[in-house]
């Protein structure tokens, strides 16, 4: 499995042992089959589709296009695959809406890459401008297929697939089923193999629920950050709520940073570097910015605001427990939130937990712990004004 050049890079990156989705999809992808690959988040899907696609690109030539929903994810995918691209003597570029269009056109013309990692808007733009020819595309990978329709119209994706040559390979990868994966044969007018390993994958992620009213969420968050080996992402449903709570947390001693899609890319990069180096152990994030994150050693995902659908929850929880490392998802909310959550993500088990000092336990303490006075958000605001 894998060419010698690929195996050498895998050994260097300590990824020599293939994950389940990588093992199951390799032969079909290397043979040019069109497939739907479904696997849980954080189980090596990028290399699962990327490596055989790269090997095949060197073997048969032509262009392989990897479609990503966001610029951040496209750049991340390019960086993940780059050592393998170089090892095989290939070239790759990223075509993203956030980049300079003219510069990308010049790069495409000059480098004549074998691999394009693109966002939908920029790819369709270059095809319309006749900078990319349908018939040159030998493989089309739609990554994050369960999210792609938020960023690209179905009729455009359908037209893209149907305009490829009949022997071109179309690959869909995702963490959950969606309308595009369920109806792929109708949409793209060709046969697909389904390779679904989700039920066979056992991730070391535990899902917890902490019952707390909105007024005391900040105080609970402070206690969470003092848990052993805490390194966490705190999810908010919007930039507005993210910034509102960040202003409150600024009056505490928590080592946190804010990350959202409205920030300059350089600022984002610096924040991520600080997080990776441990200068901050808490990142306030939103769903949009988190789609492009692949951070190692995230031990906790905290849903400060519980999402409205299971797919969003799945993608949030996939930021921890990656590549079989231990991880915890902690949900903050009231009785109603707990009932909603259990129903939404069933059959995933969610355990209610409680604080016992600065530990989380599944048994409710018989008596109140003698901790410091609980400080509510309103009191924190007052304290901040005095200071």
UniProtKB/TrEMBL annotation:
Domain Helicase C-terminal: 219-366
Protein known as: DEAD/DEAH box helicase
Domain of life: Bacteria
InterPro entries: DEAD/DEAH_box_helicase_dom, DEAD/DEAH_RhlB, DEAD_box_RNA_helicases, Helicase_ATP-bd, Helicase_C-like, P-loop_NTPase
GO biological-process terms attached to the record: response to cold
Lineage of origin: Bacteria, Bacillati, Bacillota, Bacilli, Lactobacillales
Organism from which the protein derives: Lactobacillus iners LactinV 01V1-a
Domain Helicase ATP-binding, chain residue ranges per copy: 26-195
GO molecular function terms listed in the Swiss-Prot or TrEMBL record: ATP binding; hydrolase activity; RNA helicase activity; RNA strand annealing activity
GO cellular component: cytosol; ribosome
A Pfam entry, by short name: Helicase_C
Keywords from the named record: ATP-binding, Helicase, Hydrolase, Nucleotide-binding
